[in-house]
What does this fold into?
Amino acid sequence: MSVKAILNVKGRRVVTIRRDALVKEAVAMLAHERIGAVVVTDDGGKTIAGILSERDVIHALDEHGARLLDLKVGDLMTEAVTAAKIDMHIDQVLEIMTQGRFRHMPVIEEGHLAGIVSIGDAVKARLEMLESEASQLKEYIFAR
It folds into this structure.
């Protein structure tokens, strides 16, 4: 299953924020949207400047304490973002996420931000593939 197939079911909406926004705005977005990461973009969502995850916020809270809320998103975001290509197979995405120890991966199509997949999306897609394969094997065995 491709990333494109996942986005076709899940949708392509990506919650974004500018790097000059305050961390407290990002935290409010994460809580309100019930998501684990926001993509940082400075051009209205076309290109990725970085990503800010719950994990980034927690590490910064340990380092900066409550004053972290008044820092800029750009101060905390991860700039070296690994993005998936729209035609990547979900197994590749899972492998990259596992090796990189991150849970959210923006998706690029024709050089622009096209969506985001989470580890949950990837695992769900992989389980659906396995269930489909098992069902097909059972049908084949019992048809004989």
Summary: The CA atoms of residues 41 and 82 lie 14 Å apart. The mean pLDDT is 91. The chain has one domain: 3-143.
